[in-house]
Write a structure and sequence with these properties.
The structure is a single chain. With 243 residues, the protein is mainly α. It has helices spanning 63-73, 85-104, 121-140, 174-194, 197-200, 217-242; strands at residues 56-57, 60-61. It has a two-stranded antiparallel ribbon with strand order 1-2. A hairpin with a 2-residue loop joins strand 1 (56-57) and strand 2 (60-61). The two termini are 28 Å apart.
Length: 243
């Protein structure tokens, strides 16, 4: 199949009686796309930023419905948006409990298995190590070089000029990943245990750059929670397919 990458040739285009059956769109901008009289049986949409916009199906914005269903499937997920210290603490306990269940219930033979271009459980846990480093050690605590060498960075970071030499070339064994992950979980737990409402309101810099958003300390914790719940959903989805 033909692969189109980095192109804008389809912006504003109209497709009539065209077949996209079995096509795959990854990291694509489909905002504002209008589909009328289409066959969508089996259409699978996964958007990390779905809750920040709208998605209309037959005239109904389904975003609130999807969000509510995900909150039902993942008890405590709604606390990723908590504005109080108590809510953030409760949300952190909930997501860590959910992760413990998932990791403990994954057979050893599946920890490095993955679906297509998605991350494995091992890679996902390494990415959560990186997320904690970026938003707690980097943004909140202002550590100059906050990243652990086993962190799994997002696709395209090298193209953004990120120093990839920070990270280990060879993937670590799963036992080491679990140990580093546990250390990072304790960092968040300990921080939340001693944080104050005044501290949550303090302004910080976006660890990934850009001067248009200056998150508060509370925002940084909410990003960590969002990362934890999002990647838990991804890995449970993929493990279900692998099984």
């Amino acid at each position: 199949m033909t692969t189109y990458s980095g192109t804008k040739e389809f912006e504003g285009a109209t497709f009539v009686k065209a077949s996209f059956k079995g096509a795959a769109l990854r990291f694509c901008d489909v905002s504002g796309v209008t589909m009328r009289g289409v066959d969508v049986d089996g259409l699978d949409i996964d958007s990390h930023d779905l809750s920040f916009g709208s998605l209309f199906v037959n005239g109904v914005d389904v975003v609130p419905l999807v969000d509510a269903e995900l909150n039902r499937q993942f008890p405590g997920r709604e606390l990723q948006k908590a504005q109080t210290l108590e809510g953030l603490r409760e949300g952190w306990v909930a997501v860590q409990s959910a992760w413990q269940t998932t990791v403990a219930g994954t057979p050893p033979g599946l920890v490095d298995a993955h679906v297509e271009d998605e991350w494995s459980l091992a890679q996902t846990l390494r990415h959560l190590v990186l997320a904690t480093d970026a938003w707690l050690r980097g943004a909140i605590l202002r550590v100059q070089q906050p990243f652990h060498e086993i962190g799994q960075i997002f696709t395209g970071a090298d193209e953004m000029g990120f120093d990839m030499s920070i990270f280990r070339a060879e993937p670590p064994v799963f036992a080491e990943i679990l140990a580093v992950r546990a250390e990072h979980q304790r960092l968040v737990t300990d921080f939340l245990a001693t944080a104050t409402t005044e501290l949550l309101a303090e302004e910080r810099e976006n660890p990934w750059g850009g001067g248009d958003w200056h998150p508060s300390v509370g925002d940084c914790i909410r990003v960590i929670l969002e990362e934890e719940w999002a990647h838990l959903r991804y890995i449970r989805r993929d493990l279900a397919r692998l099984r």
